[in-house]
Amino acid sequence: MLVARLRSECEAAKRLLAQQETATIRLPNQKGEFVGDVKMISVTRESFQADVAQLLDRLRGPIGKALGDGRTPPDSVDDVILVGGATRMPAVVDMVRNFFRQEPRLTFNPDEVVALGAAVQAALITDDSAVDD
After folding, report:
1. First-to-final CA distance of the chain
2. Fewer CB within 10 Å, N or C, the chain?
């Protein structure tokens, strides 16, 4: 229960940091409960971005490999569409902006795009005639 509650608090803080500069995380007791005088810590967007910087650096590798495999330089990509929940993080948007030297398109719901991609992949795997390579 402790880990589940703490994970939930951290996820909520991560989402808040996409919209504001600071977020507060409540620390549950050893039983995973929020009772009495609950301890809290404050996290800034800047400190969070420093904590995830290493993960963002790891994103550059697969992006570079995909572009290299396709023999496509970053500046010849017309549109960059971000998908998945982490793409709501300002640090991810900044990394993509710097890598491709253009603004990523943020007009699509990242979760819906992931679901549509999964549906297309499933149709391809099952050789569904409604989906053409």
Report:
1. 45
2. C
Express each pLDDT in 29-61 by its tens digit. Answer: 988 899 888 999 999 999 998 998 998 889 889
Q: What is the pTM of this model?
A: 0.70
Reading the block at residue 123, the tokens are 């149709």
Q: How many CB atoms lie within 10 A of CB 120?
A: 13
Q: Are 131 and 124 in contact (CB under 8 A)?
A: yes
DSSP state of 28: P
How far apart (Å, rounded) are the C-alpha atoms in residues 76 and 70?
A: 11
Comparing CA positions, the residue from 106, 64, 47, 102 lying closest to residue 81 is: 106
Q: What is the pLDDT of residues 80-112, one digit of tens each?
A: 988 877 788 888 888 999 999 999 988 888 888
Q: How far is CA 73 from CA 59, 70, 82, 99, 131, in A?
A: 17, 9, 18, 11, 29
The span from the CA of 114 to the CA of 120, in Å, is 10
